[in-house]
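User: I've been trying to design a sequence by hand for this structure and keep getting stuck. Would you show me what you'd pick, starting by listing the structure so we're on the same page?

Assistant: Good idea, let's start from the same input. This is the structure you sent:
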């Protein structure tokens, strides 16, 4: 457990306040975090590309700005890691695949450019599964990432490197992508706040090829809601290169104000899909806690057709991967992804258009639902973390499950185009973290973050640190 004086353990908001009164300097912090990375990362394999020289240079520039009272904003000098499917100028971006092993972008993806303009210090890139299409983190280039709460286990995926880094103190915040739960589930496995914004709230441009329609969003991972909100707000706002973003102004990071009294539908399980009993009990207790905070919590069923959702997922990802791999050598990718690409190549244009039609229908149903409710609450994941080299757990609560059995709760928010967050709740008896998910109406991201912050104030988790190091 780190002492309060451990510089690498300080959050973004704390750093900003300390920089402003010159109690700590960005160079001190970045050196402390780099030392922490050198000590801990070999046991986790969370950061796969490290830019030590660039980070120290950016920290020195930030230190000068704070000294001259010219800081770009509250995030100036705060260290950041970036998931390895988000391009960073001059930094290797591999997407976890041999096909992109030598890819070095010459331009930042737009959210990275915005955070760089805020003065954030980019430490490096975090590990991913190949093409970020699996729920654990391992790939042919770098191997598996391990969970700092138990290095025998996975932190989940596809943002496993990002959450392992933040949970272990290898930087206070990270940005990652979420196309089916890839921020929220790993955050739940590592005791963090993971936030997927609504489509368009964080404009995108100059990224890698889009293979998941508009399901994927870039969002923050942090130890506190306030830190996640700071990063979200700095990335947010419209840009003409992303027409979906043009309806939105920059978000506001006011998480100190309590939300209004909300009506929440609590869905403890999806159909007959199993849930680990410790997760079920912890999330049920969190529902009671939300009710105690003044919200109306009612138990019910998810308002989407789960079979239709499964059909959508069996088409959109495989078709996108097949398109990406068209004309490329399939032998260069791992066998599970090769099979997915072959399945996608067997789909028709009618299959894909049918899936998009089902998505539109689902979004209409959810819009009607949010006339009566403000939030949907579920577990973030159906299973506790499993062995790091294993693609997925094959049983949950004694019941056999397939590759997405652990991931049943998150994908509807992506297909539905809704914001979602994973919020830490009471851990398992073993100490492994557990998270619950809140999903809000389209565009109402700030209210979702305010509820998460209200829950954090009542049931804080920031002092829970993993045993590693």
């Amino acid at each position: 457990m780190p002492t309060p004086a451990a510089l690498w353990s300080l959050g973004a908001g704390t750093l900003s306040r300390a920089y402003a009164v010159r109690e700590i300097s960005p160079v001190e912090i970045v050196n402390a975090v780099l030392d922490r990375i050198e000590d801990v990362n070999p046991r986790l394999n969370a950061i796969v590309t490290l830019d030590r020289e660039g980070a120290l240079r950016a920290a020195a520039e930030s230190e000068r700005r704070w000294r001259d009272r010219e800081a770009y904003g509250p995030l100036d000098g705060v260290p950041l890691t970036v998931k390895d499917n988000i391009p960073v100028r001059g930094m290797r971006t591999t997407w976890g695949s041999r096909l992109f092993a030598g890819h070095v972008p010459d331009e930042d993806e737009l959210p990275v450019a915005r955070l760089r303009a805020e003065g954030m210090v980019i430490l490096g890139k975090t590990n991913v599964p190949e093409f970020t299409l699996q729920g654990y983190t391992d790939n042919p280039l770098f191997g598996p990432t391990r969970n700092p709460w138990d290095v025998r286990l996975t932190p989940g995926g596809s943002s496993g490197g990002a959450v392992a880094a933040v949970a272990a103190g290898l930087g206070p915040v990270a940005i990652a992508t979420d196309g089916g739960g890839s921020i929220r589930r790993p955050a739940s496995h590592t005791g963090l706040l993971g936030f997927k914004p609504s489509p368009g709230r964080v404009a995108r441009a100059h990224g890698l090829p889009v293979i998941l329609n508009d399901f994927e969003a870039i969002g923050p991972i942090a130890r506190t809601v306030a830190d996640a909100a700071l990063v979200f707000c700095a990335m947010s706002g419209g840009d003409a290169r992303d027409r979906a973003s043009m309806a939105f102004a920059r978000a506001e990071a006011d998480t100190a104000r309590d939300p209004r009294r909300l009506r929440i539908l609590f869905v403890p399980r999806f159909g007959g899909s199993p849930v680990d009993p410790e997760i079920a009990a912890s999330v049920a207790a969190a529902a009671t806690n939300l009710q105690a905070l003044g919200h109306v919590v009612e138990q019910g069923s998810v308002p989407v057709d789960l079979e239709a959702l499964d059909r959508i997922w069996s088409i959109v990802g495989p078709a996108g991967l097949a398109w990406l791999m068209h004309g490329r050598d399939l032998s260069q990718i791992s066998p599970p992804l090769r099979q997915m690409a072959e399945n996608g190549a067997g789909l028709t244009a009618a299959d894909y258009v049918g899936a998009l039609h089902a998505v539109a229908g689902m979004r209409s149903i959810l819009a009607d639902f949010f006339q009566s409710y403000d939030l949907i609450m579920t577990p973030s994941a159906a299973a506790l973390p499993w062995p790091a080299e294993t693609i997925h757990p094959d049983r949950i609560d004694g019941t056999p499950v397939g590759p997405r059995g652990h991931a049943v709760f998150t994908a509807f928010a992506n297909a539905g185009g809704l914001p979602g967050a994973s919020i830490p709740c009471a851990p398992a008896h073993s100490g492994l973290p557990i998270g619950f998910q809140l999903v809000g109406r389209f565009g109402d991201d700030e209210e979702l973050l305010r509820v998460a912050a209200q829950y954090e104030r009542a049931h804080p988790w920031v002092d829970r640190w993993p045993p590693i190091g």
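That's my pick for every position. To get oriented when you compare it with your attempt: The chain has a mean pLDDT of 97. The chain has 13 helices and 13 strands.
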